Amino acid sequence: MADLQQYSHGAGWKNAVLRGLLYLVLILFALYYLFPLFVMVSTSLKSLTEIREGSLISLPRVITFDAWTYAWNDACVGVTCSGIKVYFWNSVKMAIPAVLISTFLGAINGYALTKFRFKGANVVFALLLFGCFIPFQVVLLPMSQVLGKLGLASSTPGLVMVHVVYGLCFTTLFFRNYYVSIPDELVKAATIDGAGFFTIFWRIILPISTPIIVVSVIWQFTQIWNDFLFGASFSSGDNAPMTVALNNIVNTTTGVKAYNVDMATALLTGLPTLLVYVLAGKYFVRGLTAGSVKG
Amino acid sequence: MSSLTLDKVRKAYGPVEVLKEINLAIEDGEFLVLVGPSGCGKSTLLNLIAGLESSSGGEIRIGDRVINDVHPKDRNIAMVFQSYALYPNMTVRKNITFGLEIRRVSAEERDKAVASVAKLLQIEPLLDRKPAQLSGGQRQRVAMGRALVRNPDIFLFDEPLSNLDAKLRVDMRTEIKKLHQRLGATIVYVTHDQIEAMTLASRIAVMKDGILQQFDTPQRIYEHPNNMFVAGFIGSPSMNFIHAKLISDNGRLAISIERGSNPIVLPLKDAPESYNAYVGKDVVFGIRPEGLTHKRTGSEEPGSQYVNFDSKVEVIEPTGADTMTVIEIGGKEIVARVRPDRAPHPGETMTFSADMSQISLFDPVTELRI
User: Fold this and answer.
1) Nearest CB to A186: which of B77, B79, B85?
2) Would an 8 Å CB–CB cutoff place A194 in contact with chain B?
3) What is the pTM (predicted TM-score) of this model?
4) Which of B73, B88, B89 has the CB atom closest to A192's CB atom?
5) Is residue A80 in a domain?
6) Which CATH superfamily is domain B4-226 in?
7) Which site among A227, B237, B253, B262 is 20 to 30 Å from A82 CA-CA?
8) Cβ-Cβ contacts under 8 Å, A199 against chain B
9) Chain B residue with minimal CA distance to A183?
10) Could you tell me the residue range of the domain that residue A38 belongs to?
11) pLDDT digits (tens, 9 = 90+) for B230-280
């Protein structure tokens, strides 16, 4: 201990300089990443006249939420001018079922692949894993054919299905890796107690899966909410998710370019994923530490 | 409560045979311990009895009922696992009653059953805690409670004490034994600890490489091991094996151990018939450390079971109750158990007594008992 103090004392000024440099670099990086957000927020709070007169980085002189309410209620997507709210609900209707279904199926898959190992379980898992590496673009055409045949083309259920199918590989991977670390003896004990496949899943496995459920939900929600390609390909008009609508609002070329509305719409679109991180991230950490009580 | 019979039970994973024709039978109320080094197939055998794995051949019977194709839940067995396998999301009470609940036992009866088991195991104050809030020994009790509450035909224990510290392990061992005596339950218990096997079992099955080596009472296994593996595995410190020759010394059979110019000759006492075929041949002379002691009184009288010989002492290891004395005979280190007040100093030459009534002879090639 005494030795350690001696060392740090001798190199005190040097340490301070290095530490200062470190903070400087970190602050620069933080500014670099925060700058676009700053521009977006400040622009969305300005009036159009102020945007025209002021500079990009200046703070708003008068803060106004007009652009936000306009974006929510009145912004024009194509010819209908009822704001982004319709599309927000479209996204909710798409994302929530898709997240829940894909997470649930991933949990069942992971459980079956680890605790009820059947012949060829490894092959099935390898193939599922392979699915994680298939790019979106590759599945567009076959998927649209399948949706057409199922009569789900250009509908929210169709979009939900696309996201479930595409997300299954990831959720299965998450749950499989989590369940591998749960001792098999737990399942054996429950089997002897008389519980079957689904009873064990509902009563024992699922209740101890909170951390990985949160991980899966965060991941899937972010992916599905932010998706643009599937939304643009497999929906039309009023069914379009928020990301597609955002694109249509921003790309509308008639009249004056309302930057403040564009920025507000973009922020509104990004808000839910941010919210999920803020809210669920806490539970995520809590879930992880709850499991780490000395066992 | 029921008897258990294993008839030519086999288990193979593809071409790998992990269990080869196991034949075992225990009566109602017996305590069978399966013991052996890791990888000997003892846990697999337990899983076959539990029904968690299916056998590749043979018959498993509980009482008169063949259970090979019966689902684990219908075998009326209960199992205690090495990791305890308590359901982490449930309270102790829920853990114990889970099996009853699945079997649709009424809430009233469940409460009654929990109360009596909790009383028996003295875990009443813990009933509303979660497993994570329990100590190792408490978890062990809960795991046993979960098995007891079902009142099964057979209890299966899979190395239940391995995760406990040494002191607690001894306490819990006694407790399991008490429990067995009180309930008169049929128990199959897997362990790799030969002391656990000796102390708990009414009969021990020693296994190695998927083959049943010996199946007998603890005392028989200790005194009359079937082969060198069993002899070396059971007992601590383990039996001394000395390469020797069986000779006929004036018509009396004796063991001759080479040692430079003056061999040690130990005349046998009450040699069985089977030894005659080995006269003049190499044998492995097996003697437990307690069979080799300081010079006993009366060892010089004719007809005594003790035979004296001198040897130089290499190392001494006091354990308190006895002093383990390492001597070298025929290039091998041999352990003798000496009373502390008679313990020699390293380097000294001392007279030892070999108790010839407690010896085993093995064939050096087949390693089987002669």
Assistant:
1) B85
2) yes
3) 0.81
4) B73
5) no
6) P-loop containing nucleotide triphosphate hydrolases (3.40.50.300)
7) A227
8) 102
9) B85
10) 2-73
11) 999 998 889 999 989 898 877 788 888 888 777 888 888 877 888 888 888
